[in-house]
Amino acid sequence: MFESQRAYAFYSPTKVLSGNKALENLPVELDGMNAVKPLILTTPGLSARGMEKVMASAFGDSNLTIGVFAGVPPLPDLMLVRELYGFYRDNGYDAIIALGGGPVMDTAKALNIAVSGRPEDLEVLAAGKPLTKKLRPLAAIPNLDLSGCEMTRYASLGPLSLASPALIPDLMIIDPRTVPAEERKTMAATALMSMTQAVEACLHPGRNPLTDAYAYGAARFIMENILAVLRSPSDRKGRLALANAAFFAQTSFDNLAPGVVYELGIAISRSCQTKPGLIMGLLLPHFLLLEMRKETAAAKDLYLFIGGPEAFAGTAAEASSRKALDRIVEVLLELQSLVTDFPRSIRDLGINKEDLEGLVAQGSATGVRGEYDPQDIRNILEKAWETRF
Amino acid sequence: MDLPGYYEYYCGVKIIAGHDALEKIPGILQDLHARRPMIVTDKGVAGAGLVDIVLQAVKDELVIGAVADDVPPDSDLRVVNRLAALYREKDCDALIAVGGGSVMDTAKGINIVVSEGADDLMKFSGAGALKRPLKPLVAVPTTAGTGSEVTLVAVVKDHERHLKMAFVSYFLLPDVSILDSRMTLSLPAAITAATGMDAMTHAVEAYYGLSKNPLSDATALAAIRLISGNLVKVTRNPSDREARLAMANAATLAGMAFSNSMVGMVHTLGHATGSVCGVPHGVCMAILLPYGLEYNRHKREAVMGELLFPMGGSDVFAGTSKEHRTDRVIAYVRQMNQDLHDASGGRHARFFKEVLDRDGKPAVARERLPAIARTALGDGSIFYNPEELDYDDFLMVLEAAWEGIALDPGRIRT
């Protein structure tokens, strides 16, 4: 662990503020970036849960003038961003606060590109040309309903796929008031997404001491808190730990190429209405079985991430990767008992056996890592289709 | 892993590491929209041929505006202003700092002057005085220890006015740090050992300090693992490139850990010993680290015990019961100093009475210990130390560290 000697680059430009009254520090942080009039983006659902009011009270006696747009839909598009561009410009906003995950963050990143230059820059970036302008300050206030890319360089907006390190938020605020309990299924999906990102970072051939450090933090927090939070969603500290874990996992993921479980999970979720995290949870054990057979040093290290130093040190090296797999399956089974209508296999998602070949092709095409041949991917998919956990 | 009630963490420095990381500099500067960097370094670094390696690595793709290779070990405002003038005269638009702490501080000072058009640097001292990004700064550390390639502090002295100006700002962080094994390959054994123990101290104090957080913990653990596996090895065999790169990584990780968690009494006493007796910082850290552990253990027993895992590895950790782990951690650090002492032909000092100055005379006379203890009282780094210390406590620790004996548990506050 932590011993990889390959050449690498690592970048994480986000300042983290996590814990009690973290929100109250946002005005000072924005001021440090010369911003005093931020626009808050959020969804109607979060707005109805009173999240804006929490923000407003936290900013009470600061000099911030805040604007709010609480109409981010589940599938934001370019038209929305153009509309918000006008709204932002007309009102003289100077920063964006994204309150919520997934579509809110996608909208915020896209809007930031537009307002820092022109809306046309979105297409320019999507076409693969780098951004030339420095972006305006962007603060993220994530909850436990996440897509897995909030704190990364990636965003998607309708058909546009955007990727630039400049899109990574400058600030991230994790405050108990803005990380409320979500439905169990939602929190399970978010945690399994983080788990997948952390596990794939640990096993990634390009891992480095920094991705290891972040993936380790993520895996430890998830394993120590996921079941406690699902059993008792009022576990405030546990929820904050899971939100922290999501950030750590995304950061390790963002500094490596996406892994095969992640890619397959995203691809499958497009054809059914199931959150990618749940699907990744179903794929992960089969992927780990495959990795175990390779007997790499990374596969042995995985149990340190999953089980922690005490359990890892007390386990013979040759049993280590098996133990990691067992622990992950245990957690998965427990989650299935805690979450109603948690799918048991990808067959349960309405995927037909004949659809698997198409996914194999997609998985191979996205195989940035290159070491998975179609047979491996077919193997993972078939097992995840046949086996009911 | 523990989640504190509140924490902050930031390290926006892009890290580029490898045996040929220097070759990435032209592309990095292009991304930062810079075309004509000035290299800031010192005679020692240039004399060791390191600037030539940098120049060779970038020559086909980059025009170097100026090479300033005369930063003195005790740099000050005059040097900063002179080099800022050179930067302007040569029409430069970025800085590459190649060196250790003094070079980094000087480059950060120059950056304030040339970015802000400042004629009085004093206006920008203290926290929060800088309001906007400075010119691109690329850090190329040539020791593996200080972590200054990822810290947001710069200290510039004004010898004429007898002032020491401290600048603290995220804008002082380098944009990019380059960790290249070639930059430390020629470092002598004793300096390798002392600077490596500086990094070890950053990580250990960050881990058991009161202001720790999950990211300082994870980076500290990674740093300690790398140092434990590589420092003695590279001190024995200085041309081990893999171990050099591992130590460069470790120093940066440890820098991230302590700059987001803070250090404690080992640094407090180290600063004081450095200022009273002129002992190099890393030497002080190596000698004092076991005492920081001993003095604070009653407050942080469990947390310190966790360090046995990255230090000793799985078998030692699993084979040691919880109540004995901190003993093993302290013994491990002492053994490391002993091994470094042996590997450096006796040049790595284990206790203060062994430290020699440039003329080979003892650098820390026993009668100076009270003066060191008094100086330590004024140092802010004690704030996050788990247990409190007054003058008598400082002196007790110094006396033990001078002699090289363990602290008497009966004399530690509880």
Give a short synopsis of this structure.
Chain A has helices at 26-32, 44-48, 51-58, 78-91, 103-116, 121-126, 184-203, 209-231, 236-254, 260-270, 276-294, 297-313, 317-338, 356-365, 374-386, and strands spanning 8-10, 15-19, 38-41, 67-69, 95-99, 138-141, 154-157, 160-163, 171-174. With 389 residues, chain A is α/β, with parallel strands linked by helices.
Provide an overview of this structure.
The complex is a heterodimer of chains A (389) and B (414). In chain A, α7 runs antiparallel to α8 and α11 crosses α15. The longest helix of chain A has 23 residues. Chain A has 389 residues and is an alpha/beta fold. Helices cover 53% and strands 9% of the residues of chain A. Chain B is globular. Chain B is α/β, with parallel strands linked by helices and 414 residues long. Chain B starts with 5 loop residues before the first strand and ends in an 11-residue tail after the last helix.
How does the SSE layout of this entry go?
The complex is a heterodimer of chains A (389) and B (414).
Chain A: E1 8-10, E2 15-19, H1 26-32, E3 38-41, H2 44-48, H3 51-58, E4 67-69, H4 78-91, E5 95-99, H5 103-116, H6 121-126, E6 138-141, E7 154-157, E8 160-163, E9 171-174, H7 184-203, H8 209-231, H9 236-254, H10 260-270, H11 276-294, H12 297-313, H13 317-338, H14 356-365, H15 374-386
Parallel strand pairs in A: 2-9, 3-4, 3-5, 5-6, 6-9
Antiparallel strand pairs in A: 7-8
Helix pairs in contact in A: 4-5, 7-8, 7-9, 7-11, 8-9, 8-12, 8-13, 10-11, 10-14, 11-13, 11-15, 12-13, 14-15
Chain B: E1 6-9, E2 14-18, H1 25-31, E3 37-40, H2 43-47, H3 50-58, E4 66-68, H4 77-89, E5 94-99, H5 101-116, E6 126-127, E7 137-141, E8 153-158, E9 163-168, E10 176-180, H6 189-208, H7 214-236, H8 241-259, H9 265-277, H10 281-306, H11 308-312, H12 314-318, H13 322-343, H14 369-376, H15 391-403
Parallel strand pairs in B: 2-10, 3-4, 3-5, 5-7, 6-9, 7-10
Antiparallel strand pairs in B: 8-9
Helix pairs in contact in B: 4-5, 6-7, 6-8, 6-10, 6-13, 7-8, 7-13, 9-10, 9-14, 10-13, 10-15, 14-15
